[in-house]
């Protein structure tokens, strides 16, 4: 600036509104942005400008649920058919405008059943032509139960005007079916025609009775069966299965040679953990690293002859706890896990009633938990049985670093968590107070006690 000259006033620089930098980005960048949005929001960008009209049509992830509006009114019986029709039109419109040659993910999530077979078959045909890699049909989205004959039947083939087209999902890597009937022949066809399938979930399949899966040619690594009320037996053998989950009625469960098995989650209905469960899984106990067991009925359970589980590092027990009965017997399972590092216990109390009683003298394992670093106990109410269990672990876990206590109720009444009920808020506060008073004094120095 020249000396003595007055400075010029700053004039705000005009920003050109005609220039839309985002719209001028390459399609690949715009698709990356849209893929981070819910699908309904991505579709809505089509109204922004001509540039945006068809961008979303090239998305390779299509996850279509009903949206908040449809979710709210679908539970009204007199409106259910109308709402389903609206949802079907929504999915058909998305499919009609989709331009990408391939699909990485196609997810349908709504309350649909066998009456919607024509539409669902059409969607499956679309996914097959798009060489879909992840396919999810969740028709139990708003429901807990439906009669088996009302479920949509997963097809073996499609009937078209010109020919019968067999369902072949050659590119499929993950298949999730909830509220879909999968019969034995269909299951075998899925495995036979999906050579790259690694993950298979079947929930609430009404007509699945006998599951026989095996053979070295299988690529299946993660297998999950839940809520299949008519199932009678499962036999898995000689393939590279990594994780298996079964939650349903007590069955004939046989696990053959599965050398890659690392994670096992078993819940056999109201019967809970039966004495023969360890015989059923005997062939893979030396491989398992993460073990989850539901033990809902404990009256006649004998747990002092558990086989050694040499590689289990994480153990989760969901226990049906009643009338403040001693829980120390379950430490036999933890003691059998020679490499145990994390021990999680979820207590499902029938009623949160405190009763004064003295500590019981119960025969417990004498081997210390040499590697146990983390103890998590959910549903701690401060009963003597809760305290006995935690005190036993503290006394015998020489490497313990942290204890996490969750006093919140773990049970449910219908579809409502007990925690949401007003009377249980007071119970939770009382349980939290008990946890502080009981456990702070016995927690060793250097061990972190976290009470949620």
TrEMBL record:
<dbReference type="Pfam" id="PF23622">
    <property type="entry name" value="LRR_At1g61320_AtMIF1"/>
</dbReference>
<protein>
    <recommendedName>
        <fullName>F-box domain-containing protein</fullName>
    </recommendedName>
</protein>
<feature type="domain" description="F-box">
    <location>
        <begin position="22"/>
        <end position="59"/>
    </location>
</feature>
<dbReference type="InterPro" id="IPR055357">
    <property type="entry name" value="LRR_At1g61320_AtMIF1"/>
</dbReference>
<dbReference type="InterPro" id="IPR053781">
    <property type="entry name" value="F-box_AtFBL13-like"/>
</dbReference>
<dbReference type="InterPro" id="IPR001810">
    <property type="entry name" value="F-box_dom"/>
</dbReference>
<dbReference type="Pfam" id="PF00646">
    <property type="entry name" value="F-box"/>
</dbReference>
<dbReference type="InterPro" id="IPR036047">
    <property type="entry name" value="F-box-like_dom_sf"/>
</dbReference>
<dbReference type="InterPro" id="IPR053772">
    <property type="entry name" value="At1g61320/At1g61330-like"/>
</dbReference>
<feature type="domain" description="At1g61320/AtMIF1 LRR">
    <location>
        <begin position="94"/>
        <end position="434"/>
    </location>
</feature>
<dbReference type="InterPro" id="IPR032675">
    <property type="entry name" value="LRR_dom_sf"/>
</dbReference>
């Amino acid at each position: 600036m020249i000396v003595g000259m007055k400075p010029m006033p700053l004039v705000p620089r005009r920003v050109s509104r005609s220039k839309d930098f985002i719209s001028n980005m390459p399609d690949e960048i715009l698709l990356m942005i849209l893929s981070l949005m819910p699908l309904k929001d991505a579709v809505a960008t089509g109204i922004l400008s001509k540039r945006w009209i068809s961008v979303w049509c090239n998305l390779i992830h299509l996850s279509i649920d009903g949206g908040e509006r449809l979710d709210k009114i679908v539970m009204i019986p007199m409106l259910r058919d109308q709402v389903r029709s609206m949802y079907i039109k929504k999915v058909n419109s998305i499919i009609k405008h989709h331009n990408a040659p391939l699909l990485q993910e196609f997810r349908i999530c709504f309350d649909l059943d066998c009456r919607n077979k024509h539409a669902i078959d059409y969607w499956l045909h679309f996914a097959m032509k798009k060489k879909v890699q992840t396919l999810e049909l969740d028709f139990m989205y708003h429901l807990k139960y439906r009669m088996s004959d009302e479920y949509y039947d997963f097809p073996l083939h499609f009937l078209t005007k010109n020919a019968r087209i067999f369902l072949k999902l050659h590119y499929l890597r993950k298949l999730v079916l909830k509220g879909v009937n999968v019969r034995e022949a269909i299951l075998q066809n899925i495995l036979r025609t999906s050579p790259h399938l690694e993950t298979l979930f079947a929930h609430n399949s009404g007509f699945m009775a006998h599951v026989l899966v095996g053979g070295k040619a299988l690529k299946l690594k993660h297998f999950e069966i839940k809520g299949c009320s008519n199932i009678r037996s499962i036999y898995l053998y000689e393939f590279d299965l990594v994780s298996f989950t079964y939650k349903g009625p007590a069955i004939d469960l046989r696990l053959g040679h599965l050398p890659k098995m690392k994670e096992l989650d078993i819940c056999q209905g109201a019967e809970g953990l039966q004495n023969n469960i360890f015989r059923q899984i005997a062939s893979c106990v030396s491989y398992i690293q993460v073990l989850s067991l539901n033990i809902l009925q404990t009256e006649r359970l004998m747990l002092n002859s558990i086989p050694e589980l040499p590689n289990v590092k994480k153990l989760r027990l969901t226990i049906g706890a009643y009338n403040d009965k001693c829980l120390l017997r379950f430490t036999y399972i933890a003691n059998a896990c020679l490499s145990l590092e994390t021990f999680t216990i979820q207590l499902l109390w029938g009623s949160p009633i405190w009763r004064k009683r003295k500590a019981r003298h119960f025969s417990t394992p004498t081997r210390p938990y040499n590697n146990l670093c983390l103890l998590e106990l959910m549903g701690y109410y401060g009963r003597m049985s809760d305290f006995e269990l935690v005190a036993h672990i503290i006394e015998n876990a020489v490497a313990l670093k942290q204890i996490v206590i969750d006093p919140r109720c773990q049970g449910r009444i219908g579809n409502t968590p007990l925690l949401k009920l007003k009377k249980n808020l007071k119970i939770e506060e009382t349980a939290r107070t008990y946890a502080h008073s009981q456990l702070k004094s016995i927690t060793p120095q250097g061990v972190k006690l976290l009470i949620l």
